[in-house]
């Protein structure tokens, strides 16, 4: 039987009421509900918050507190632990059933282990404070929970939006079959990273990863392509650092999905250097790691992935966001992802005012070792970039001079064995070039690595 079912059977509060915000210069958007059978405590709490920009609700009747919450929709409920008839845990448990987003604080002068456990498990309590509680501590706790309340509401809205988009994806699955087939290589790569003993469990959320990847691609092909490049470099860096297979897998998945929190942001916010954005756009962009983390927290086996995503904008010197973590307290996956993402964004012109070459981007991140980035990760970067540079990207394939054909389009500058540029990026291959390439291949005695555009990508280009 739910606690709230017996609400209307008896209701005789000693005091109850409403006090509007006393600070008229800051109209309140939030209500705070105080619940305590001691009217003196109620009056003390009202005094503590009299100058805060909140509307105050109060009652000494725990049953009325449930009805007040349902009717007035407060952002935070501060409740005494021990009260006649219903305990604070009973009240907050009933509230959690219809208002899970509300911040919940238990105040008690009789804290014990069992009651603390019940408060957390049954009442879904966010803070557990002992009486007497300092005014500043209480005000700080309420301010924090109002922020949590807002994030929870935003998360629900984003989840609802994601659910609607997933439904659209299902309806248009036939149109997306071609794109899904192209992305299956990514899923196969993720599958190859799975530990065999955990494969059955992991398969449960692979479909979700695919949906999120497709959703990101629908929102912005450029953002999705960025995520795939970052994922490839992050995987190589993790392997260069000697991380085990499961860690490499988690870092790869986190890199694929790290920008999910940017869905819903306008293109100008996404692709403009941070320093050039206005304050509102900057504030919105700074929230994307936390938004992304909340999406994956409830999915099985995504705890580490969501942590990496939350902290991939932390800095090694502690000047990053959202938590200001420093050094080794930042997850190694987040430290790797920070290097890989900035290396790619510098080349896209999203991080600085102008696009950098791959060489200059590598120099930029290397010069920030020990400040923005983990020195250990930076030490692994040169060898990782060498391997990354030899891996064909999604739109290209690697051929030798023997298999190179007239009409192919180079996707990278090609430097010959003599150290001179033999072919420039986007140059169309002609017969004279093929002859020169094949002669060079005979001289060095082994196939050369020539990167050209895939036929399908070439067709789409035209």
In short:
It contains 18 helices and 10 strands.
How would you sum up this structure, described in words?
The protein is an alpha/beta fold and 462 residues long. It has 3 domains: 149 residues, Response regulator (Rossmann fold, 3-Layer(aba) Sandwich); 218 residues, Orthogonal Bundle (Hypothetical protein af1432), CATH 1.10.3210.10; 66 residues, Molybdopterin biosynthesis moea protein, domain 2, CATH 3.90.105. Helix content is 53%, strand content 9%. The chain is built from 18 helices and 10 strands. It has a 6-stranded mixed beta sheet with strand order 1-3-2-4-5-6, with helices on both faces. A two-stranded antiparallel sheet has the order 7-10. A two-stranded antiparallel sheet has the order 8-9. The longest helix is centred in the first third of the chain and has 37 residues. It is elongated, with a radius of gyration of 28 Å. The N terminus is likely disordered.
CATH superfamily of the largest domain, by name, is Hypothetical protein af1432
What is the N-to-C succession of helices and strands?
A: EEHEHEHEHEHHHHHHHHHHHHEEEHEH
CATH architecture of the largest domain: Orthogonal Bundle
Output the strand order for the largest sheet: 1-3-2-4-5-6
What is CATH's topology name of the largest domain?
Answer: Hypothetical protein af1432
Tally of separate domains: 3
The Rg value, from CA coordinates, equals 28 Å
Largest sheet: 6 strands, mixed
Q: Strand percentage, roughly? A: 5-15%
Give the class from helix and strand content and strand pairing: alpha/beta
Separation of the first and last Cα atoms: 67 Å
> Roughly what is the average pLDDT, rounded to an integer?
82
Count of separate DSSP helical elements: 18
CATH class of the largest domain: Mainly Alpha
- What's the total number of strands? 10
Q: Detail the poorly predicted runs.
A: 1-16, 19-24
